[in-house]
Amino acid sequence: MSSLPASRLLSSSPTPFLYPCLDSTWTSSASTFRHVARQSRARKRIATSTIRRQSTATAPSEVAHEDAPSIDVNQYDHLNPQPLEYSSNPFTDSCTISLHAGGGGHGCISFLREKYIANGPPNGGDGGTGGNVYIQAVQGETSLHKLARRGILKAARGKNGEGSGKGGKRGEDVLVQVPVGTVVREISRHDPIEAEERKAKGFGGDVDREVDADAAPDQSGKWRRDKWLLYPGGLPKYFTSADFPALPRPRRSNLTASQPQAPLRLDLDTPMKTPMLLAAGAMGGLGNPHFVTKSITRPKYATKGEEGMQIQVQLELKLLADVGLVGLPNAGKSTLLRALTRSRTRIGDWAFTTLSPNIGTVVLDSYAGRPALPSQQHRSHFTIADIPGLIEDAHLDRGLGLGFLRHIERAAVLAFVIDLSAGDAVAALKALWKEVGEYENLRERELNAESERTPVDEDGMVAFKPFESSISPGFDPEPGGSNVLDTQVGRALPPLSLPAISSKPWFVVATKADKEHTQDNFGMLQEYLKRVQAGEEEHPSGKPNAWRKRPVAVPVSAVMKEGVEGIPGLVWPTQPFILAELSKLQSRKLRRRSGRNWIFLSFVPEHCQVCRRPGAR
Ligand SMILES: Nc1nc2c(ncn2[C@@H]2O[C@H](COP(=O)(O)OP(=O)(O)OP(=O)(O)O)[C@@H](O)[C@H]2O)c(=O)[nH]1
Ligand SMILES: [Mg+2]
């Protein structure tokens, strides 16, 4: 055995792994490892792109992008990304984060010392206040993924006080910027001062009794190591026998008065000009001059800064859109969005092409370089949200679940997108409404649980003030009734509740009407909707107070952009008025441009199988 060369001995034992530097082959093997790793990474990349190519094989438009030998890079931008980059946009619409207000800096123990003044009076400064935590809803943010990744956001601690009476610096604040439409709910909070006050009263005591600010200070604070800061040069015997004063009452920053009341429930559905305070930083400790008494003229102690408050909140992004598209996967929702707006959302002939919501804007404009209407009181655009497809039993977490329905909760109108070529349209509509109804039940249960937790008023009534729909301005049925966030904080915020989804107006967009044998399916759908309107059929959601005023179905061929011209008219009930106004104003000019303007297009579908049927429409 001893005749074996050392390198072979090492290679036949686990030594190279434990002591690679002892192995003569180490350098070469390390480089081999690196080479192998590089190769495997390259193989992985090739495999991924092959898989993507395979999966796009059925979508001719996508394949064209993939196989094109020269890609014009300038034709892509962040709104119209390259096919391979579609999945690179991270999107998170719900997360839980911890917000920590900054703790206070410690007070300072210091004495004046100058020429001829060897033992001067105390001059330690107070500790600085901790940083505050603010929140602000801003335009431009579209996802919560950055916050979800961070998890904890901490404001900085205040700096300690210094000698010569210098106070410590304030801690740096933290600003949490969230997308407009974010709902903030408090999960738990730890307020050290409140905990202290409760402890002082005794756990069995009357916790509702107000703390009397003039009451005698807490004597239990004596000798508390977590509260007092001692002079480092002092002898231990001095401190054990020192006559410590009573511990000062825990102090709160003046800013605490402008914090919203606990528990936090905010609906940030408008962009905020100024940030809103969520948690004020804790106060700094007191320097030693605060403890000068007649008997103790040179106190060798100061107090430590207070601990900062910690709040755990849940953030939920509910996108703001006027119209929500709901449909089974592959029904053609994204194609419809592309047909109506300039959105470049991805489409593909397979289920779950869309994995995160997309918003598109329909411009109600004459494209003549100025607004369609001179008056400002009418809208010039509305937004549409395309969400991932729902499948049967999505409420049992099948497919992508029901979570994405939160993005249509604020929508004023729902559009159910039904594929006429994919079997019974009525059954598909009922299946979709069933899932929407289940989501509504889930929300109701959540709301009930929340209102049970809502503080009870003095007269024993639960404070409950549901606010109006917070859809974007212009769709508000009662002007001025929208939930505009009042940045004047410090007031009780109403519990969050949005109108029931089933109470919203809805219509059906029957897509793929250009395909053969879709007429009868559409006819049955229309008949069904008429029966629902007349009350002969139960509302597909099964809810008693559901909207059934005028549910209509529009046959469209989204892929050929036919029939979609009528959709804005369904969304915007005042359109006839606008049409009249517009025709009075600019009729001749616009009629010439009618190829680009849906308002004046009289829809003559060429390919629509439903409309080409003799006697139809
Ligand atoms: N013939 C025809 N095909 C359509 C029409 N609308 C959509 N399609 C096709 O249907 C397929 C699915 O379209 P998508 O818009 O991706 O469907 P989706 O509902 O967004 O699907 P998910 O994102 O998976 O939920 C695509 O291949 C479209 O080209 C239509 O009106 N007529
Ligand atoms: Mg889609």
UniProtKB/TrEMBL annotation:
Its EC number is 1.14.11.27. It comes from the Eukaryota. Keywords: Oxidoreductase. It is an enzyme of class 1 (oxidoreductase). This is GTPase of the mitochondrial inner membrane that associates with the large ribosomal subunit. It comes from Vermiconidia calcicola.
